[in-house]
Amino acid sequence: MENDLPQLSNDLIEWFQNFDDKIDSKILGGFVVFDTENDDFPILFSSRSFETMTKYEKQEVKGLSFFSMIKEELHKAISKTKRLSKEMFITTKDNAIVHCKVLFHPLQFSGTSRKLYMATFYNRTEQKKNKLISDIQNWVLEKYNDEENPEIILQGFFKKIEQYTSNNITCSVMIYNEDDSAKMFLSESFTNKTINAFNKDDIIPYNKYFKKLLSKNSQYIIKNVLLEPNMYLPSHDICSRYNKAVLFALKDDENKVRGVFIVACSNKWSLESIDITLFQQLTTVIRTIVKYGSYQKIMLERITKEPNSGLYNLAYFKKKVQEKFPECSKGYICIISPKEYEDIVNLYERKAGYDLLTQIADRMSSYKENRNLVVASFATNALIVFVDFNYKQYEKHVLEQFVERPFIIHGFEVFVSLSVGLSPIESYQQLDESIRRADQAFSKAKLEPGNNIQFFDDEDNNRIKHERRMYNLIIHGIKEKQFIPYLQPKVSLQTKEIIGFEALARWQTKTGKMIYPDQFIPLAESTGKIIDIENMILDNVLDWLCERKSRGLPLYQVSINISPQHFYEQDFVCNLVDKLDIYRVNPKYIKIEITESIGLVDLKKASTIINHLKSYGFATSMDDFGKGFSSLNYLTQLDFAEIKIDKSFIDNMNDSKTFAIIRTMLQLADNLNVKAVVEGIEDKSQVEKLGEIGCDVGQGYYFYKPLSIGQVNEILNEIR
What we know:
Elements: H1 10-23, E1 31-35, E2 43-46, H2 48-54, H3 58-61, H4 71-79, E3 84-91, E4 97-107, E5 116-123, H5 125-145, H6 150-164, E6 169-176, E7 182-186, H7 192-200, H8 204-213, E8 219-222, H9 238-241, E9 244-251, E10 257-265, H10 273-289, H11 295-304, H12 314-324, E11 331-338, H13 341-348, H14 350-365, E12 374-379, E13 382-387, H15 391-403, E14 407-409, E15 412-414, E16 418-425, H16 431-446, E17 452-455, H17 458-479, E18 483-492, E19 498-508, E20 514-515, H18 517-527, H19 530-550, E21 557-562, H20 564-567, H21 572-583, E22 590-595, H22 603-616, E23 619-625, H23 631-637, E24 642-645, H24 647-651, H25 656-671, E25 675-678, H26 684-692, E26 697-698, H27 709-718
């Protein structure tokens, strides 16, 4: 067939090979180029990783077609020269199945009249298998919630696996009884002849043989069932369809073999290590489904309960709440957690935490007023509860049951306080939303000290929705570089000359709307995006200084506000120095302005960072000086070059006590050889009074409001 294929030019082959060199390592399944004018879409070129995935040599791949399953869809896309994305599987040279996402896109090259397409393969086999395990586990849980017969569930389990492998395998399970008898469960994909034969035959010989094979290993591969002595059903039609098999031991908690999971394979399917691993993982599900003796009760507990605490899980909780609603018209979803949980775990290990939650659940269940109570595990340290009484009554119950009575942990009495979030629910259809709302109220309760019960509040809900919308806008704003600096001049109170600037962040949206810092800075800080914004402001300021330097214009020192989380970032100083090197700006023109609360995080580390900045030539300034309780302590331990007296003092400077404090702060700064800047100056009388008590520098609307860089340039040009 290869001789009948259209030949690619040497230039095209070289181009594809170069393309392969550049991207092959990044594309898990590689790519192929195929001819669209041939109805079979034969491959003309293949990448190395595609050949590795399919186990074909390059010359073997050439001329092959892998797209017969989607031929019709591919023809439609090609006729319109469109792209196509498909989930499909391909069969390798040794008949293994690889699940792929394939992107088809047209290629256009000058000098060739043929219409070529490229297919890019992304190997999704591992993801598909992980999803299969998850889907099967969820499906089994659903069936058990519906109290399906275990044998019916097992048949559905077989069917799901066989569909995944395109029916190239068939499954069966043999379960051993205590008396050495056994029961065989065969997939419906076996012929009726085989199933009937099994029902008639004595399977004890197979039972003993399998036990022997699996006594030392958890799996055993049979490469040819005809050559394996005592292999099951050698006389029946199974051998004509499936000639290979893998046996997986189903062991109990004492590691004894209690059954075997048998996967029989046809010649058309290759057993890969990843497939064997998949089947081995599924033995846990099988063992759960077919547990001997009191299987159904044990199975229900394993599926519905958390293994560590023994409490019901969230899925079972939802099922039980659904069952309650015919009996009760409404209720409350409650999320509850002991505030001391982590302390107890740290003192007595993780098991003590589970024990505490179990005791709380037991006390909840003892409340006689609530006939429809459902308690389950919600998180590692929290319970979720459905109650049908008024939450005010519940608050009284909490105080009586949990606050006034101790719990016994490791033989010691332990008193706890609780965080509780509550949300009403009036129908099962509201359950997920009610859980979300209770969780929201619970988060609020955790922030309050002691026992705290928070009821869901629509205002909080609206606030969170607003914050989520604002957060999304901040992300877009950062990507589109919408955050810009506005510069507010610092002025000499004696000469009224501009001696420097403070850079203030502004957010100018695509529509031109200006958003001010109080609307976005707190959220940016709480979400960690403040560092991106501050770096953007710094880049703009450095770009402005660099431009003025290149034009031979005077440079001014600019204060940059830095948040605590940015300040304490591991490479903060190094990154700052690198930026100034890029823009060729001397560090003396950048002043790092940090808030008075900076030392609350780590005073010793703050001192180290400030000294590091000083060694490079950066000045530092303490913003909001005097606003907190620790300003004087910080001033003695942190080597600031400047303090900025908070605006709240200037607003009240007509008060004699406030004025005395301002004077004292100015004298203190002078004695410590630290510059003082007064913020928020708004009228002439303030300027005169500050001048009288020795204030040299100020900023505020009396002099200048924050200005765009263009406006600053105009002002500086006028005073040259």
